[in-house]
Amino acid sequence: MPQDSAAQKPTAESGSAGGRLIDYPHRGGPTVLRILLGAHLRRLREARGMSTEQAGYEIRGSHSKISRMELGRVGFKERDVSDLLTLYGVDDPEERDSLLQLAKEANTPGWWHRYGDVLPGWFETYLGLEGAASLLRTYEVQFIPGLMQTEDYARAVVRLGYGDASDEEMQRRVGLRMTRQERFTEPGIAPTLWAVLDEAVLRRPLGGRAVMREQIHHLIEMTALPNVTLQIVPFGALDHAAAGGPFTILRFAEPGLSDVVFLEQLTSALYLDKPTDVDTYMRAMNNLCIAATRPDDTVNFLHRMLDQL
Fold this sequence. Notes:
Elements: H1 29-47, H2 52-58, H3 63-70, H4 78-87, H5 93-106, H6 121-132, E1 133-140, H7 151-161, H8 167-181, E2 192-198, H9 199-203, H10 209-223, E3 228-233, E4 247-252, E5 260-264, E6 269-272, H11 275-291, H12 298-308
Parallel strand pairs: 1-2, 2-3
Antiparallel strand pairs: 1-4, 4-5, 5-6
Helix pairs in contact: 1-5, 1-6, 2-3, 4-5, 7-8, 10-12
């Protein structure tokens, strides 16, 4: 797994798109609001039979700008949203006010804004999605998932990628990771985490023997949480190789948000939400869970690892 909350608002009725307009999410911050607003604008445009080129021309922009807005990849100018609503025939004052308010809130910085000096822009999208997810399924082949790392283990991982970082920068990077974990102890918003680790992750003693022992003890403690499932793919399970590298599947309780597959790279990331892509990764994840130890055997497996450290 890659190494906030928006206040609930009332919904409005949509005369042009039909049904309820938008249910503002309880969590996820501006990233999710942008995605919801962008998806709604896309539905309005398609209902009018307009192309992205036509819509872009009307707001003095390009088709690519409309595409980025509809995908929730950029912030929204209220003037652009207002012009698009007029173009799409949305003239109900209550509906317009609701969408314009959503545009304003979508531009509000997320909690991670205070870590902007150590946070790459492409990762901000993931943090927003992670904060909104009700279920995260993750497969790791190299490191303990970020949401399950101890502070000392996280520091060892950060040091691998940022060996020249100052002590202050190192602590801020670790602090960001620790802050992400706080959701697991917050009543009512703790997501479900289902992690599958390759055995190699546990055999790699990052930070030294003492750090790794502490990390494994922490994993044992996490398996006791009702919202956490952990499985280990042992070296003997050869039929999982087709799964490839690490990936995370995020699922959301909020209507209007489709599943997303997150693939982290060295200097960027891929966010896949096409049903065919998601289905492929979901099948791979299910196969990994079959190849892995049963969840109720994980603690015994981890204790055996401790005996060998």
